[in-house]
Amino acid sequence: MAHVTLIEAVTQALAYEMRRDPSVVVLGEDVGVNGGVFRATVGLQSQFGPERVVDTPLDETTIAGLAVGMAFQGMKPVAEAQFDGFIYPMIDHIVCHAARIRTRTRGRLTCPMVLRAPWGGGIRAPEHHSEAPEALFAHIPGLRVVIPSSPARAYGLLLAAIRDPDPVIFFEPKRIYRQYKEEVPDDGEALPMDVCYVLRDGHDVSLVSYGASIKECLETADALASEGISVEVIDLCTVKPIDIDTILESVRKTGRCVIVHEAARTGGIGAEVAAQLAEYAMFDLRAPVQRVTGYDVPMPLFRLEMKYLPMGARIAAGIRVVMAYK
Amino acid sequence: MSLAAHFDIEYRQCLRPDGVLVGELPAFAKQEGQLLELYQLMSLTRVFDTKAVLLQRTGKLGTYASCLGHEAAHIGVGSALRPQDVFCPMYREYGAQFYRGVRPRDVLMYWGGDERGNDFTGPKHDLPWCVPISTQCLHAAGAAMAFKIRHEARVAMSVCGDGGTSKSDFYGAVNMAGAWKLPLLLVVVNNQYAISVPRRLQSGAETLAQKAIAGGIRGVQVDGNDLLAVRSVADEAVARALAGEGATLIECVTYRLGDHTTADDARRYRDDEEVRKAWEEEPLKRLRAYLYAQQLWDEAREAQWLAESARRIDIEINAYLESTPQPVSAMFDFLYAELPHDVAGQRAQVMAEEQG
After folding, report:
1. Is the model's pTM score more than 0.90?
2. Fold assignment, A197-323
3. Among A267, B54, B144, B308, which one has the highest count of C-beta atoms within 10 angstroms of its own C-beta?
4. Annotated catalytic residue, options A93, A97, A129, A261
5. ipTM metric
6. Is residue B139 annotated as part of the catalytic site, yes or no?
7. Interval A176-187: pLDDT, tens
8. Is B125 on the interface with A (CB under 8 A)?
9. Range(s) for CATH 3.40.50.970 in chain A?
């Protein structure tokens, strides 16, 4: 059984589904002969040909519009935005068409597409290569937004996203693309979307996060265990819709919640989780909810990016704040 | 200096504004009854359009985008398609859609504020009306890619306006059409105005058809008030696309005789004299003159058909007016294949409020 990195798991899932379903096509910039700038699509064009692994002209609007148009006609396009920061020209097609064609046509037409993008900071990349725009998409009715945090979840959730009859935005945390390998059987088994994954049990505080930050959350939880603080770590995985029930169950046990994400704070996923905790768990909370997030500033160039990202010390500090409430 | 490349843009006109045939009759028009059928549809579409504007004026319809003056362009391109082809309209190509089986009541339903209008009769793969400008051009290109990948002998057609050719989506579709030799028709109905902005402010290009050249596809300009010319150019483009010869950009030069929509007042930005002159070139008049001259049609049959059209459209209007709004749950019921738990909760809340 193969041990693979997160990006290899992405490639494995794409190849599996392209073999299984002839309506799946991959399109984007440099995804063909070059196998993608991160090599997510490496080897696919030689296996499936240039009509199913399409090197498109260099225009994100074109990529999004083509994917939407193909999906309307029954294909299952998996489009790639080369970097998170290049996804903005695609938003018109995603918001005005992909997300609402089923609603607009009363189910006559649908848009079973996936838009993949390397996501987030921490790799000393140039400007516009380190963004976390998930909240923009999470705000849009009709979309799903999925962000895996491990090779196994990348594989299983990408399969689920491609098989889903509705559009899915699939953000891949590039900081952990090659961070570690784990065993991922290439068995075509999808994992469920729309649910959180509880990665570590604990009883003092619920630490809710997603994407690359999951690694720091788990490390922080381990470190604090030696101080006698028991941290439950929850990976949202699907940031729209949020599986609030799993979070509520955890918070009812711990009474404390810290939310961690790279994206800017205002109007972020953390704000949504905090709002729902205020609505449904007000009297279970012993402490105000803490958000440990990127600041409300543009992602800084890389000399300062590790100051921007919510790394271990800030996560631990957030946990200590809620632990001060007994 | 030598010449790197040289390009020409062909202009096609078959019927002069006075209805006199210029050159040879196009092949499609030689088929028995074909021209009459299309003329009758143009006429019925105009009756529909007039009545739809009146419905809006009397508060029985929301904002409506008139197709007045566009009948030859719309029906010319629309009738060149087969049911299996995919039509990707903007928001006023009713004539083309009627040809494809969409009912007038569907159009009224849409502008009357009901999504069921987009679930129209006619080909189920056709796209609904598209209000964000020119995005449909890329959706048509995507459809054409699907046909190419699946080896299906089908074409896709999008329609946008003169203003729509300024959008990056339009350029992207032209570019992709050339790069992939797509079975695609990019129709530009140049009606001289993008709401209030005239054609000359939209682009410095001499023709909009020449925007095809940069993408490596064929571009043709046609008299958009001339059904014979539009249809013959569209027929050629479909044949070329099916033969693997790639895409065509068709610029139909016409004039928007009405306001942009019922929410617009065109008197703010163009003078009456210009509109009066445009009426002399309008599409029904010239085709009618030709049909009269060929003794295929006469005043008695014209009057009879107008009455019949009014009767048919009134049936459609009544069907629309008698329809009841969707239940409030319909806001949620087509959002996803299966409603996620968060929105399901909101749906339940709304339903409880409705019943409470």
Report:
1. yes
2. Rossmann fold (3.40.50)
3. B144
4. A129
5. 0.97
6. no
7. 999 999 999 999
8. yes
9. 3-183
